[in-house]
Input
Amino acid sequence: MVCTGIMGIKAVFLGEIPLSMKSIIAFLSFFILSAFTFAQQITCSPADKKAFENKTVEIDGLLEDDFGKTMVAIGKTFKGTPYAAKTLEIGETESLVVNLHGLDCTTFVENVLAFSSLLRDGKSDFDSFTKTLENIRYKDGKLDGYGSRLHYFSEWISNNEKKGLVKEITSEIGGVEIEKEINFMGTHRDLYPFLKDDSNFDKIIETERELAKRKFCYLPQDQIEANEHLINTGDIIALATSINGLDVTHTGLATREKDGRIHLLHASTGSMEVEVSKLPLVDYLKGIKSNIGIMVARPL
Output
């Protein structure tokens, strides 16, 4: 279902005009509605629209002076939400998917950041939410097809830093630079249904060429514990990987728990739901064979 805000208006006005005009205005209304739908490109079920409304009520009162603490407070309201893969791979063309009933690691972070930003700005309307989510999820804040989505999380961080939404702090907390070719999507085209389209594939290749010009910075796994005190609650943690062609395999939020250690608040593929890792981040990462360390971005 595509969520739009003018369907009710259309129904009211058509009932108040002469029948001779109804067919003309019905056609024009359909045309306008279709154009509006295309411009917005929002995919949202009635259940998720209701979930949005419920969430705005649930998070009321969670605003903290520290934005990172606001992020974690809101993030924890999603605990128990099922993990769901490929929630954005819907339909034949790219749309802004609003899905609050199933989250993957990236959509969890995106939705938490969107709700936190709305709460800070004193907004709770659906239109503001979708505009904020689009700004976070897409290159330069504009949905312009599949290739405009920030697929690689290192690019997600750098592009959202450009927008002023986060600050990449990996280098400030002991991170080191390495040269790594990021080209997994381009070299595994068959894994991505949208890449059957040549124009989508060409845009991904273009993105990978741009990423090849950048340095890749991460905090090595064996240095995280010594620098853990520099990580704040609410920081976005991205798990860097040794897998060829990939920058990041997972992401979540840092949360300092009662044991005084940083844990990971994330949509887990282990428990298949949003949870706080039972182990501190340092120990959690040791159980991931391909992990080489982390990237860290601070929400602003």
User: Anything to note?
Assistant: The mean pLDDT is 89.
